[in-house]
């Protein structure tokens, strides 16, 4: 039974602690559903916060959270914020070596997982909070930030080990704007099947529900079209979100969508216009919103209500959200390939990790240089035509080729790594990697392959790996 729990709609003049008031968050958590039958009781949110404050780490400390979609993740995320710490969400499948490397990159004071073993994460002191393992590193000299801030990883565009520091209030503001652009209300039920470490799922869906009073229903991978449709039906879902590759799988399956589903939003990458047309033809009466955003922007930027537009606009990313302004900057590639600049009061506060050392970022205070190329038509609709940096969509995930290259070249015996992508008939791509090895090092190629695949996230692992033995002097470093 769907019981709507109304949450107070607080203004941004309120303090962060008021926005994270235990009564407000407990009311929200009690309204959350799951697609599995054994949903645990939310427990005492106030007790979780009190235990976190007893960890004896400084206010503003970063705590990494690597958990799958579910109530434990949702509860501990808000508890970490309310305790005055800075949450950093990470994929639960992240290899232990990558988790440790990210902890160093971001100056994390601790790690929260379902289970933490000494073999995977040696050192530190252990605690147990809300049925989760907490490992505190106790490394001296770690940085701290302001209470009420969140770190969002930008592994899609900027590469592994990069992230953005955002104010929680700014994320709520962005959630409000997105909700208004897709007509989300307190009468809606939202299926959250995208991973919550995606900024879209966290901000547009979870925080969007928190702000509007809509009811979130938590799900998760793997995605199967028939199972997805069953979830929509069983839980009375009215609003759902998919990535282009998941929507394409749904269309190819031939599954019908339930009458109760009013709205589908698409984000993460562009949906090809022929797929837009196919969706609208197959599911007449459904609302389809195409959204564009970047984690750095906090995260949503623009929305296209495709169901209300002519087919000539199906390739557009729509118009900017209220409070967001899009500018263009000439980069010498012609009038239809100018760099997209985003001006908003939800732009990140700081870039962290490897991103802090790389070029790009702000073109001016509050103005993000996205690295995306495109143009605006006479009516203000944005069209994206490419990207200045090297990234690709592989197995439904945006991956950075430069990040893969850095990881591979950090391994002993690798002189140079050259990742590349090979286009296939779908919107996805096949990732290939050439490794050039120092022939004098006597590299164990099987061992190198194992080490590489352990260091890379699943979406970063190449479909084809080629190794070439060369003398150290035959390549420029």
Structure overview:
The chain has 477 residues and is an alpha/beta fold. It contains twelve helices and 26 strands. The chain has helices at residues 16-19, 22-30, 45-53, 71-82, 96-106, 168-181, 199-212, 225-234, 244-253, 273-282, 401-409, 445-455; strands at 33-34, 62-65, 86-89, 108-113, 125-129, 132-136, 149-153, 162-167, 189-192, 215-218, 239-242, 263-266, 287-293, 300-305, 319-320, 325-329, 338-343, 350-353, 361-364, 367-376, 382-387, 391-394, 397-400, 414-423, 429-438, 464-470. The chain has an eight-stranded mixed sheet with strand order 1-10-9-11-12-13-14-15, with helices on both faces. Strands 3-2-4-6-5 form a five-stranded mixed sheet, sandwiched between helices. α3 (45-53) crosses α4 (71-82). It is globular.
Main beta sheet, described?
A: 8 strands, mixed
Gyration radius, in Å:
22 Å
Helix run count: 12
Overall number of strands: 26
Structural class: alpha/beta
Low-confidence stretches: 1-6, 472-477
The share of residues in helices is 25-40%
| Morphology call | globular
The spatial strand order of the largest sheet comes to 1-10-9-11-12-13-14-15
Mean pLDDT: 88
What fraction of the residues are assigned to beta strands by DSSP? Answer: 25-35%
Q: For the record, give the distance between the C-alpha atoms at the N and C termini, rounded to a whole number.
A: 63 Å
Give a short summary of the structure:
This protein is of the alpha/beta class.
Main attributes?
8-stranded mixed beta sheet, 5-stranded mixed beta sheet, 12 helices
